């Protein structure tokens, strides 16, 4: 009779991995990730508003606003990444 079957082994491995990840997480990391998400969401919202404003304008103005919206998105994403990377560096995460 097998005491440890493959499904049981998989459940044990998953439980161990979940506990390991839960131990690594802390509230400071959660707050930093939330702040980074908010920065990215705010830049996306601003870019969306620019794109909506660009609709119906002349093609050169529409293109210019859409390019500006893309820049805003990229800057927001870069800022959010920098926030997360800074927090990881402080916490000693690779």
UniProtKB/TrEMBL annotation:
<feature type="signal peptide">
    <location>
        <begin position="1"/>
        <end position="22"/>
    </location>
</feature>
<protein>
    <recommendedName>
        <fullName>Secreted protein</fullName>
    </recommendedName>
</protein>
<feature type="region of interest" description="Disordered">
    <location>
        <begin position="32"/>
        <end position="94"/>
    </location>
</feature>
<keyword id="KW-0732">Signal</keyword>
<feature type="compositionally biased region" description="Low complexity">
    <location>
        <begin position="32"/>
        <end position="48"/>
    </location>
</feature>
<feature type="compositionally biased region" description="Basic and acidic residues">
    <location>
        <begin position="58"/>
        <end position="82"/>
    </location>
</feature>
């Amino acid at each position: 009779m097998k005491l440890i079957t493959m499904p049981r082994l998989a459940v044990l491995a998953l439980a161990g991995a979940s506990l390991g990840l839960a131990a690594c997480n802390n509230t400071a990391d959660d707050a930093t990730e939330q702040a980074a998400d908010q920065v990215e969401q705010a830049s996306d919202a601003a870019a969306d508003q620019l794109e909506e404003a660009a609709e119906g304008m002349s093609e050169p103005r529409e293109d210019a606003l859409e390019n500006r919206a893309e820049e805003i998105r990229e800057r927001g994403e870069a800022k959010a990444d920098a926030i997360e990377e800074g927090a990881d560096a402080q916490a000693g995460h690779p």
